[in-house]
Amino acid sequence: MTQRDKTWLFITLAIMMALTLYPAFGSFSGISGLRDILLFALFAVSLDLFWGRTGILSFGHATFFGAGAYGMAVMTIHLAPGAAWSSLAGLAFGVGLAGVIALAVGYFVIFGGVRGAYFTIVTLALTLIAQQIAIGWSSVTGGDAGLIGVPPLTLGIPITGKLFYYVVVGLLFAVVLALWAGLRGQRGLVLRAIEDDERKAQTLGYNTPLHLLAVFVLSGLIAGLAGALYVTGTGFVAPDMIALLLSTEVIMWVAVGGRGSLIGAVVGTMIVWRLQQEVSTLSASAWPLFIGAFFLAMVFFFPDGLPAAAQKLWARGKGMKEGRTA
Amino acid sequence: MTGGGDLRTEGLGRRFGGLVAVEDVSVTFAAGGVSCVIGPNGAGKSTLLNMICGAIAPSSGRILFDGKPINGLSRHAIARAGIARKFQVPSVFGSLTVAENLAVAGGGDTEEVMALTGLSGERDTRADVLAHGKKQWLEIAMGLIRKPRLLLLDEPTAGLSPEETQAVAELLLSLRGACTVVVIDHDMHFVRALSARTVVMHQGRLVAEGDFASIERDPMVRDIYLGRA
């Protein structure tokens, strides 16, 4: 294990420990608020898996989060209301729906050779189409008003309150650690190689579209899982869970945390949500304007994310101190 | 190496709109042999290589590898059939170290190949900070480590010193019998050092082939290189 790996594990486990201890000090509303933020962090991890490991930016990830959310809501409210297994069926339906959309869209786009900015534009259009379906198909989705009355997660026993919080923390870190472990070896190297030079990777015998599609679908499944769990906490689903603003925000969360590290997406989500709370206390309508300006600032001044910028500053400060000592 | 593969093209052609890049090229590169493809700029050499490794589809003709047609196969399928390619501009994975590049390229003994190509001291160096010559060696190493049956090299000595050029020639000649090697190069000193079977292309067509000594004496080939043909 390299020093870099050890540092990554230390930071990840430290964050996990802090989040595990939080319910001992936090209020009920604080715990449920942080639980929702951690589900958004899981969503951000899903984008970081694709964007961070392949270099291809998806502007349509809210589609998968929304598919998970609507899948869970439709199953538990319309198809199997009150059934003991409805939460499990809702999870399967929501995650499956997100996966099928990722597979169908990803197959044609990725095997069609769409890359770079074109991929970003196509996925942006995907979110717009998905949102229009969510609004227009009102008999199923509830239209503009969405669906109210999604029951709490029940897996044999009701998963609510602190238990739900711990399930989310456990799931988030299980996903982060599993992805980290799975991408450390040859698989991770191949993805980095594809990001560097896809043509060269093909001439070495790698079916690069298949690799990219596998990562895209896995990313969509994780986003769908985050969406499906999120609505069991809020109790409702609405079109803004499948909207362009959410697709923009998740890019922001990953960009702030620094793409490619997975745990950075978790940190970035928490930083931006904290900022959102502060900005919203000043003006509720100022947030979309602020996030746009903040995004531009990130791109120009901290393209590798805030943790990387802090690391550079620390290294520079250390260098200056050593220079003075010498 | 796993033994060379036999490559044959039959009436191979490629057009880009009205431009004929390669026309009716029928040539055989026998298993285990070392061959050079030479010709002035625009002769169609790189287009020929691109068609063989699946980067572009032929407009006409067939490509047979060990007797089996490989036209229409994807790049990765052709690579898996045992064909490795080195590009004209060194193509390595810049964000990976030398050892990681070789690990991605696959399979073989990384230390042995690094020693063979003089890269042992650069094991943990990121490829994007390597000097041009080292990148050339790395890409050759990435081809070798895959133990290909056919190794296609597009200008492997560009930017190398005379000593390094000689070393590449010796390395390629040492592969004779174990791997079929096809080299495109403009450097006549290098081609002479290989002293291999040489195929001459001009304006998309194959105009001469034979051992390098006879090709060097061929008046038509001299005219082509002097711009008189």
Automatic annotation (TrEMBL), chain A:
| A cellular-component GO term for this protein | plasma membrane
The protein's topology relative to the membrane is: Multi-pass membrane protein
Keywords in alphabetical order: Cell membrane, Membrane, Transmembrane, Transmembrane helix
Q: What is the annotated localization of this protein? A: Cell membrane
Which segments cross the bilayer? 7-25, 31-51, 63-85, 91-110, 117-137, 163-183, 204-230, 250-273, 285-303
A Pfam family annotated for this chain is BPD_transp_2
Please give the chief subcellular localization of this protein: membrane
What Gene Ontology molecular-function terms does this entry list? branched-chain amino acid transmembrane transporter activity
Q: Which InterPro entries match?
A: ABC_transp_permease, LivM-like
Q: What is this protein called?
A: Amino acid/amide ABC transporter membrane protein 2 (HAAT family)
TrEMBL record, chain B:
Q: Which InterPro entries match?
A: AAA+_ATPase (IPR003593), ABC_AA/LPS_Transport (IPR051120), ABC_transporter-like_ATP-bd (IPR003439), P-loop_NTPase (IPR027417)
Provide the alphabetized UniProt keywords.
ATP-binding, Nucleotide-binding, Transport
Do the record's keywords include Repeat?
Answer: no
- Note one Pfam family from the annotation: ABC_tran
Q: GO terms for CC? A: plasma membrane
GO-annotated molecular function: ATP binding; ATP hydrolysis activity
Record-annotated ABC transporter domain positions = 7-228
Q: Which PANTHER family match?
A: CONSERVED COMPONENT OF ABC TRANSPORTER FOR NATURAL AMINO ACIDS-RELATED (PTHR45772), HIGH-AFFINITY BRANCHED-CHAIN AMINO ACID TRANSPORT ATP-BINDING PROTEIN (PTHR45772:SF8)
This one is known as Amino acid/amide ABC transporter ATP-binding protein 1 (HAAT family)
